[in-house]
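cron nightly-structures :: item 1 of 1
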Amino acid sequence: MSSKPESSTLAHSPQTGSANRLQQCMRERILVLDGAYGTALQGYGLEEEDYHNAALADHPIPLKGNHDLLCLTRPEVVQEVHSAYLAAGADIISTNTFSATSIAQLDFGCESMAYAINEAGAAIARQVADAHSTPAKPRFVAGSLGPTNRTASLSPDVNRPGFRNISFNELVDSYAEAIRGLAAGGADILLIETVFDTLNAKAAIYASMAFNDARDAAGEEPLPLIISGTITDASGRTLSGQTGEAFLYSIEHAQPLAVGLNCALGAEQLRPYLGELAQKCKTAVSVHPNAGLPNAFGEYDQTAEQMAAIVREFASAGWLNIVGGCCGTTPEHIRAIADVAAEFAPRTLPEVPPQLTLAGLEPLKIDRDSLFINVGERTNVTGSAKFARLIREAKFDEALDVARQQVANGAQVIDINMDEGM
């Protein structure tokens, strides 16, 4: 067993001008993102003691499987995984911080360590990326911000559909802490990934934009965003019910560097949703699918060659700006994908005509060719005495029925107005 220093790296700042270099590289070629970290780390056969250091010597909760903690307890292992993906041809490596928010770390009793994990995770990746960078092939660090294990849009209790176990502001605060750590460690990009609930993503976006506003005011370079949603099954929707197009319209106000899809499905299953995104997204498009679908044992059987063959079809169709792998993918998968990506030009951004885009669970586009749009106006405390009374009496389920009735009668947009007398 090798020694386990709390950290073998020093914090770095993001490379000056890295955003410009990143955009230049994206114009020149399809960039390759790395693959899975859980898959790689599980292959080391780590035991409980590997997840402890001096600060965690007497920790009362088992920590095995909390892979983010390895940034503090076994940084050399995380370095090896980064190096393997860079050697395979990755242009961008993700930090080993997918679950490093205070919210997700609460289950392990490690919520107070969230900032330190993110800072260490970014510093490890920064050091390895710098060591592999050349003028012809600079390497970039994407600070991974996972969805957390709570959802702001859905109740965890089927008997209480209105119950939530997390608030938007709690999510914002937790993401803001993680973002500060990632930036201090030297991340070039903020990767908001595996979005199953768009409201959670909006909290991460809110925290990211506030952080970038502060950086900009201080004369520092903002960190570009990559936002990647998760289509959960053949319905073509996220877990909270949005279609891919509605998800795009919900987050494009953040002006991300790229919008993409990852996790839950393999490349073949993501094909129709990626094609739609490539057609409608005004920015770059990214995808990092699983290595197929899991087998009966929860393992992934799709080979590197099989996955690369599907990616070839995506690239030849002109759908890709960034491509990598998610669950089950290995450096072998990334090497095969990188070989394919090198053969094709990156996707050209489409000219999307000006239009009003709105999104609930479904998208709504309004342009010069649109027909009459019905707007439901009864959810208005000034214009509807009934709705105002229901809100004052906190009868919110009945107030929602007012909105449902308008939709049933043909409203495509609901105008919710809670302003009475300014």
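cron nightly-structures :: done
The chain has 14 helices and twelve strands.
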